């Protein structure tokens, strides 16, 4: 981040300038190319970066780019998880209004996968839960929310070692996820958000017991 600040302060980047490639930015930020790609998508949605087909990404505002990147990477895990929760709840509410038949098929397929999958560790379960949550957010038909949710999940990914057994909690958690899916199917916003709250509380209880 300091290197990026120095380049901008030296005038190497200015409004309208073409940004470095994903590979170069990943090396300078010390993150993966996928993380850079998702960050750029978020910045495009917020109007900080402009994508020109066949040409690359161009800076639309110097200070905004730095502020946006720094605020994302400087967030601690608690702040990031809180933001993910807000996005999920807002998206579920929108999904009850906007979900398509295709969205319902994807959500139900994700439920079928966890029911059939041998999932005994927290790591395996939370990996599935993240995927399922993304399906819910995508059903909101809001691309900005979808991209931001995906990007923030990459930041918190693998920061916690979830190695304990989940067998005793799995059925109850899956049932609550099924309740969310059913409420979205029937377009019942109140029930969907109620099921989301119940799932959050169940996860907190299970993790507390695990600890």
Could you list some keywords that capture this structure?
Four Helix Bundle (Hemerythrin (Met), subunit A), 2 domains, Arc Repressor Mutant, subunit A, 10 helices, mainly alpha, 2 strands, two-stranded antiparallel ribbon, 211 residues, 4% strand
Please characterize this protein's 3D structure:
Helix content is 72%, strand content 4%. A two-stranded antiparallel sheet has the order 1-2. With 211 residues, the chain is mainly α.
Give a brief outline of the structure.
This protein has 211 residues and is mainly alpha-helical. The chain has helices at 2-9, 22-29, 33-45, 62-74, 77-98, 101-116, 122-138, 143-156, 167-185, 189-210, and strands at 49-52, 56-59.
Topology summary:
Layout: H1 2-9, H2 22-29, H3 33-45, E1 49-52, E2 56-59, H4 62-74, H5 77-98, H6 101-116, H7 122-138, H8 143-156, H9 167-185, H10 189-210
Antiparallel strand pairs: 1-2
Helix pairs in contact: 2-3, 3-8, 5-7, 5-8, 5-9, 5-10, 6-7, 6-9, 7-8, 9-10
Q: What is the first-to-last residue Cα distance?
A: 35 Å
Q: Helicity level, as a percent range? A: over 70%
Q: State the CATH superfamily name of the largest domain.
A: GntR ligand-binding domain-like
Q: List the uncertain runs.
A: none
Secondary-structure element order, N to C: HHHEEHHHHHHH
Structural class: mainly alpha
Overall 3D form: elongated
